[in-house]
Amino acid sequence: xxxxxxxxxxxxxxxxxxxxxxxxxxxxxxxxxxxxxxxxxxxxxxxxxxxxxxxxxxxxxxxxxxxxxxxxxxxxxxxxxxxxxxxxxxxxxxxxxxxxxxxxxxxxxxxxxxxxxxxxxxxxxxxxxxxxxxxxxxxxxxxxxxxxxxxxxxxxxxxxxxxxxxxxxxxxxxxxxxxxxxxxxxxxxxxxxxxxxxxxxxxxxx
Length: 206
Hints:
The chain has seven helices and six strands, in the order ββαααβαβαβαβα. It is α/β, with parallel strands linked by helices.
């Protein structure tokens, strides 16, 4: 198993922790990771964009000019796409952009993302992350002690104070075990993971 240093909130070492090689030390599958990122972004789209086609815009019932004799091009309606106020060609309509991936593919993508972060030395394990009160300055100090840049903070349960303390820190984001995703892992530079979160991740993805 891969062994990494574990830190305290003040930045000092608190020992080491072993990470399951089947989760944190596999050969990353770039294609599967790409699919997971596309899935996440597609599922975030509202799909509410809409424009009117020539059949839906108002007016245009009368022929704008005679078919022949004017020397100009023939026109049947002022609501054709080439006219000002006309309809849109292939107008966008509300649609659902979401799609699904198999569970095995999702799990492999998550393992690949975590493994790539470990190989890059971007995973910081903390023995615990407990705040006595909601204090952004204190959370920023903890992240400074850990030298965490643009971090994704993954915590276990009962972490409301920590979430509120980190929400106003630029570049930082918090996540629980059930809400982590490949996109956020790749987007953020460092992963700050509590010991409790590491244990739960290894239980879920083992």
